[in-house]
Amino acid sequence: MAQKISFLNIKGGVGKTSLLVNMGACLAYMGRRVLIVDFDAQSNASIWLMRLDRWNGLNKTPEKFLLNLFKDPSAKMSDCIQRSPIRDTDGDEMLPRLDLAPASFTLMDLEHEVPQIENKPFYRRFYEALSEVEDDYDFILFDCPPNFFYTTQCALFASDHVLVPSNPDALSIIGFHLLVDKLARFKTDTETQRLSAGSPSPEIVGIALNAVKPGTKIHVPLERFNSQIDRFKTQGKVSEKTHIYPDLVRHSVTVGRAVMLGIPTVLMSKQDASINLAEDYIKLTKHLLEQLGDAEAEA
Ligand SMILES: Nc1ncnc2c1ncn2[C@@H]1O[C@H](COP(=O)(O)OP(=O)(O)O)[C@@H](O)[C@H]1O
Ligand SMILES: [Mg+2]
Questions:
Q1: How many angstroms separate the alpha carbon of residue 195 from the centre of ligand 2?
Q2: In the predicted model, is pLDDT for residue 134 greater than 60?
Q3: Are 26 and 198 within 8 A, CB to CB?
Q4: Where is the AAA domain (predicted)?
Q5: Domain 3-291 is of which CATH architecture?
């Protein structure tokens, strides 16, 4: 069964999408079968992986997007999946083990314009739909918006783990407090549904520090983050496995260039990548694999 991970932080612009796209690509590169589910209506991961022209074209068939799962009870998860969306300029597949369930801007309609079915919250509907394809993947990664609205709830209800991309600054540390409280509240509120569906109870596995500029005095925010995590552990609010990942992702314009090229950093040529940022993502991914007990973590 797939390991399911929500990339979540209630702060925007911290690197959720770029970490997810790059770590997802690293996992596929290392031989794992990966599904990226884009639950952010901004559709950044979808546009990055499909490139704007193909994503624009797909918008003519709304039934191929996640929103349709909630509008049409007979819709299937497999109808919302783009196989191997990363293509080279000739249209050939570049990373065959990585698939995408894309978002469109209309995903935001889920908040107010799609009626809920009684006794079946959206997250339960999504959890059941996802089971159709779960065995096809080793990892399913959810790109979440910076809030706790319906799509984040769908991701969390299905997830075993939560990975928190963060920047090493004071506002991110404050935001982490809110995230921990909201997650605990969500788990309590959905307990009955979780027990009857047999869905996992998501735990924060780690905080991945992103876009760290050279010369940043990282030890000060690290100490603050660590003492907050220790306090949450004592209060039983996070699990013993929650920790800050030792490998940081450096700040680099390479990330923006990868978006322009429509490929993850790990697939960029040496000329396009100004520094070998891919190494940072590979280290993080290996750490995640080890933490999750993936037998071939060193692959
Ligand atoms: N390591 C990095 N170095 C420099 N810029 C980065 C890095 N990671 C992300 N960015 C940039 O920061 C912005 C926000 O990143 P993104 O992954 O979209 O965050 P989020 O999904 O949390 O909103 C984007 O413009 C992205 O290109
Ligand atoms: Mg994002």
A1: 30
A2: yes
A3: no
A4: 3-191
A5: 3-Layer(aba) Sandwich (3.40)
